[in-house]
């Protein structure tokens, strides 16, 4: 069995909750729910589109560190406290995944910080698998 590799982001929630940004397990890369919180400053943009764009950049960086890209994502989950915020994100999501659309689910649920308006979780299959 191949070793499991953990990819931490260094964000404050990882230590508090007990998780890491991504886990590489064999050919799979599992990326934890990712919000639009600036990892350098902790700032959370007000607009859902800005949070979505930032979450996608953070998610993409974790995938890159694991040896993947957005094109390798096979499953994505979008969690939003207000389903009305989902449609404004569609252009960003379409741009990120359009050439290689993953299976997707949108869930309406509360998030850990009331300022968060979207969280994105992804599973990718490494291209060399």
TrEMBL record:
This is RidA family protein. The lineage of its organism: Bacteria, Pseudomonadati, Pseudomonadota, Alphaproteobacteria, Rhodobacterales. Pfam families: Ribonuc_L-PSP. It comes from the Bacteria. It comes from Rubellimicrobium aerolatum.
